[in-house]
Design a protein that fits this description.
It comes from Aequorivita soesokkakensis. The chain is mainly β and about 260 residues long. The chain has 3 helices and 14 strands.
C-alpha cells in the first residue's frame, strides 16, 4: 500500500511539474531578419532575462528592432519594446515603448496595478501622466505573446478557432484576437519544422493593408518558437524570418535538415 501511494504521489508530482513547465525562460534569445524579398531591411531581437520589479520576481523581455543598410538611409527605424512579466501569474507589471520611426517618436512607460486594475501611462516625451482602468488579466503587446506561449492549448485547438484576450496599448483597452489557420511543415533556416499557423487581427489603415494582413508560423512543440511572420502592408509586403536562437527551455524538433 505504501509503495502504491508513493508511486501515486510520484506520478502526481511529475504531472504537476510538467504542467508548470514554461515555454520560455531566462536566457532565451531570438534574432529575426526583416526583409522585402531578397533585400534585408533590418533586424529584430527578442531577449528574456531574470529581473525584479517592486520586490517581485519577473521576466524582463526586450524586443529591439532597427533598419540597416540602404533602408536606414531612406527610413531610419529604432524600436525598443520592453515588458516586465510576473513569473507565476503571467501578467505584466511594466511596459516600455521607445520608438523612432522616420522621425515619428514615442517614449511611453505603462505601470500596471492589477490589484486596483489601474494603469499609469507616463508619456515622457510630453511629460504627461494619465490613469486608465483595464480588465482582469490584461496583457501588453509583448507579454501577450509570452502569455499565449504558456497558456494556449495547441494540442486541442481546432482550425478556424479564434482566441481572444484583453490588451492595453498606449492609452486604450481592446480585444486582441488570434485565429488558428491550421498546421504545416515549414522549410526554415534550420531544417523542416512542424508549425502552427496563426493570424492575429490587426488594425487596417496606416500600416497594414487589412485586418487579416498578418500571418505567423509557430513551432508545433513545447517551445512555440516564432519561425516566420508575413505582413501585407498598405504598400508592399515584408517577412520576418528567424535566423538565430538560443536558451530554449525544451528540445527543438526538426523533421529533416536542409
Amino acid at each position: 500500500m505504501k509503495k502504491l501511494l508513493a508511486l501515486l504521489f510520484l506520478f502526481c508530482n511529475i504531472f504537476l511539474i510538467s504542467a508548470q513547465e514554461r515555454a520560455y525562460g531566462d536566457g532565451e534569445y531570438f534574432k529575426f531578419r526583416v526583409h522585402y524579398g531578397f533585400v534585408t531591411a533590418g533586424y529584430a531581437t527578442l531577449n528574456v532575462k531574470n529581473a525584479s520589479i517592486n520586490g517581485k520576481d519577473v521576466f524582463h523581455v526586450r524586443g529591439f528592432g532597427e533598419t540597416v543598410g540602404v533602408s536606414k538611409w531612406f527610413f531610419k527605424v529604432e524600436d525598443d519594446y520592453q515588458s516586465y512579466i510576473d513569473k507565476d501569474k503571467n501578467i505584466p507589471y511594466r511596459f516600455i515603448r521607445k520608438i523612432d520611426e522616420g522621425g515619428y517618436t514615442k517614449d511611453i512607460q505603462i505601470d500596471f496595478n492589477h490589484a486596483t486594475s489601474k494603469a499609469i501611462v507616463n508619456d515622457k516625451k510630453h511629460n504627461e501622466k494619465t490613469e486608465f482602468s483595464f480588465p482582469k488579466e490584461t496583457q501588453d503587446m509583448i507579454s501577450a505573446f509570452y502569455y499565449l506561449r504558456n497558456k494556449l492549448d495547441t494540442e486541442n485547438i481546432k482550425e478556424g478557432e479564434v482566441v481572444e484576450m484583453n490588451m492595453f496599448f498606449d492609452k486604450e483597452n481592446y480585444k486582441f484576437k488570434l485565429k488558428f489557420l491550421g498546421r504545416e511543415t515549414l522549410e526554415t533556416n534550420f531544417g523542416y519544422v512542424r508549425t502552427l499557423i496563426f493570424r492575429p487581427y490587426v488594425q487596417s489603415g496606416r500600416v497594414f493593408k487589412e485586418k487579416e494582413s498578418l500571418t505567423v508560423w509557430i513551432s508545433d512543440d513545447n517551445n512555440k518558437i516564432p519561425l516566420l511572420i508575413k505582413a501585407d502592408l498598405a504598400v508592399g509586403s515584408l517577412k520576418a524570418t528567424l535566423t538565430e536562437f538560443k536558451g530554449l527551455q525544451h528540445s527543438f524538433k526538426i523533421i529533416a535538415n536542409k
